[in-house]
Each structure stands twice: as structure tokens, then as C-alpha cells.
Design goal:
Length: 264
């Protein structure tokens, strides 16, 4: 598939996804505040046959939040080989934002946006006030540790799993260096945080292969990457332990929630 064909296929897929989101709004009687791509496509290291991980935040009518028979705070719409579509109620999302939830930060800053709104832009700015560096750092170090332990300490490893260990390491480096939400795109993280040229060269070669191959298969572990991941996990864990946690108020989140409901 050449670039023109790929661009046309991406355009058609975006239209299909937006139509599915409009269907959700109609059938669930909700308004989607924003919908984005998450996972490998948002990170920029998808394979040609990667599925579409669509995530959204929605709000119901004001009276729906006053009923005794409350609704679930998630909508799980579609899960198959092509689509993985689900979303969170705004009330749930705001509670998770106060807890400095890294997944929500990534949704809010995804480079691939299907639906947006003024509330989306306002919520992105509010999120900057709820960055608990310690919580975010531990999230990323646990993600890197789990991927390293479960997938990369074997005689043969699935090469794509290296990205799922290295990306959170670079994200944590970013958080520790800036006290800010890390970029979603993997290559931006690399440009900012991966200064080891030998590691960067190997990662770039793997990235180029992944983008044109349906699946990076099993191969012998890469000793250079293994040593880098192992050492970074140990070092970053010590740094995260020395951080202080933050305690955020509800005031700004409550005000935003009430303002959104008044528009419904």
C-alpha cells in the first residue's frame, strides 16, 4: 500500500469510527466530550494490522445523575480484531483525574482525536493542575517492570514487547525531569529522553521494522536492550521512592462538572 492509498484508508477508518461514536451518543443518550486513539497507534509504533483502541469521555443529562437507579460509569461498546471502543462517564474521569490517573492524561493529550469540544480543551488545562509526580512515576515504572518480567526474560522474546518496556522508562524520565505530563508520541519521548546513542540506534531499527511488519516475531533477546531496561528500572525506582505525593482539592473539578451539567 502506497502513501496515497494509506491516507485514503485512514480517512475511511476515521469516518467509520466517528459514525460508531455518533451511534453511541444516540443509543446511550449521552454527549461525548472527546474521543481519541490510545495505545500503539497514539504512541506511534503501531503495526499495519494493529487494532483501533478508541477511548472517550461522555456526560449524561443532568437529571440522570440525580436518579436512584444510577447508570454504569463506563460504556463498553465494541471489542473485536479491528475495534476496541470504550469510554468513561465524566464523573468517573474527574475522580480519576484527582488521583492523577496516567491513562486519562494520555487520552487527554492523544495526537489522534476523533471528537473534541471546548470542554476537552478546558479539561486538558485543568489536568495540568493534577499532576502527582510520584503516582505517575510509579505507574510507569510498574508498567516497565511488568513487561520486562513477564515478556522479556525468556530464551526467545516477542520483539514488540521491548517498546512496552522502553516507552514507560522514557515517560518516567520525562516526569522526573520536568514534573509534567509526558508526551504521548514515542518518538518525541526518544528525542527528549533517550540520550544513549547505542540504545537509540537499536530502538530505531526495531521501530522501522514494526511499522511495516504485521507482527514482530520471536527472536533471541537483545542483550543491549535488556541491560538498559534492567538498569533503568532499578535506578528510576530509587528516584521515585524519594518523591513526595500531592494532595489535590475537589474545588476545580466540582466547578467544571457543574458547569458541564448546566449545559446539558
Amino acid at each position: 500500500m502506497n502513501k496515497t492509498q494509506r491516507k485514503e484508508e485512514n480517512k475511511k477508518m476515521n469516518e467509520r469510527i466517528i459514525n460508531k461514536l455518533k451511534e453511541i451518543e444516540l443509543k446511550e443518550n449521552v454527549r461525548i466530550l472527546f474521543a481519541v486513539e490510545s495505545g500503539s497507534r497514539a504512541w506511534g509504533f503501531e503495526s499495519p494490522d494493529s487494532d483501533y483502541d478508541v477511548r472517550f469521555v461522555y456526560v449524561r443529562k443532568e437529571n440522570d445523575y440525580l436518579k436512584l437507579n444510577t447508570y454504569r460509569d463506563v460504556i463498553e461498546w465494541e471489542l473485536d480484531d479491528v475495534y476496541d471502543i470504550n469510554g468513561w462517564d465524566l464523573q468517573k474521569a474527574l475522580k480519576l483525574l484527582r488521583a492523577s490517573n496516567p491513562a486519562l492524561f494520555e487520552w487527554l493529550n492523544s495526537p489522534i482525536v476523533y471528537i473534541t469540544s471546548p470542554e476537552h480543551e478546558e479539561l486538558r488545562k485543568i489536568a495540568e493542575h493534577y499532576v502527582d509526580t510520584k503516582k505517575i512515576a510509579f505507574h510507569y515504572i510498574h508498567t516497565a517492570s511488568n513487561n520486562y518480567r513477564n515478556y522479556l526474560r525468556k530464551e526467545e522474546v516477542k520483539l514488540k514487547k521491548y517498546f512496552y518496556a522502553i516507552r514507560p522508562i522514557l515517560a518516567e524520565r520525562y516526569v522526573l525531569a520536568t514534573q509534567e505530563i509526558p508526551p504521548v508520541l514515542f518518538e518525541k519521548l526518544m528525542d527528549s529522553q533517550l540520550k544513549e546513542e547505542d540504545i537509540k540506534k537499536v530502538v530505531m531499527e526495531l521501530l522501522a521494522r514494526k511499522k511495516v511488519t504485521s507482527e514482530l516475531g520471536f527472536e533471541k533477546p537483545n542483550e543491549c536492550l535488556d541491560l538498559f531496561i534492567k538498569n533503568e528500572i532499578e535506578k528510576l525506582k530509587k528516584q521515585a521512592n524519594n518523591l513526595d505525593s500531592s494532595n489535590f482539592t475537589w474545588d476545580e473539578l466540582n466547578a467544571f462538572f457543574i458547569k458541564v451539567l448546566e449545559k446539558q
